[in-house]
Amino acid sequence: MLDIANHLKAIHREVRRGTTTGGETVTVLVRRRYDATAEDVWDAVTDPARVRRWFLPLTGDLREGGSFQLEGNAGGDILTCDPPRLLKVTFGGPTSVVQVRLAGDGDSTELELEHTVPIEIAQSGAGALFVGPGWDSALMALAQYFAGEIAEDPVAAANSREVQEFCAGSVTEWSTVVEDSGTATAEEIAGAAQISMAQFAPDLTGDTE
């Protein structure tokens, strides 16, 4: 059985609006600690043979200056690759940027993922609801992998009712985070939450009507 409550609590979430030379942005940040060395966590999130065991099949020219593709999901360019500390890539488009930072402390490592997009894409801080639950689900799947709870088919597992229940809880958590951040109106949050539920927990949408 998936311990949904503890997996939700294990993730730190933030959303903020900022300004760069390219204009206004919205940034989503998630953080979780793993009982593994930084080198092991780095390998688990960059080695295609391991990534496919907990997330998705990964292909590409996996080096700085190269590109990557996650099967059935986003691809992009590898901007920075500094093992085992920093990975920076475009994700689904040149203005959508994901950074993964690892901070190791012996056999424990904190993984921090930051996803930044222009305000034109996110519309408001409520845009966090379009990606936050997905990143939450990925961090949970990585924790299961390190705990030896490896799904035979990670894609099928990610679409299971149990994981959808986790995602529904994640939508609630992100709604609260966005509200507390003051980066979106109540109407924007409600609308984004409805879309997010349909995306990440489609089998449960009828349960909340």
UniProtKB/TrEMBL annotation:
Q: Which residues form the Activator of Hsp90 ATPase homologue 1/2-like C-terminal domain?
A: 35-146
Which SUPFAM superfamilies does this one have? Answer: Bet v1-like (SSF55961)
Domain of life, per UniProt, equals Bacteria
Which positions are tagged coiled coil? none
The entry's family comment says:
Belongs to the AHA1 family.
This protein's name? Uncharacterized protein YndB with AHSA1/START domain
Q: Which organism is it from?
A: Amycolatopsis thermoflava
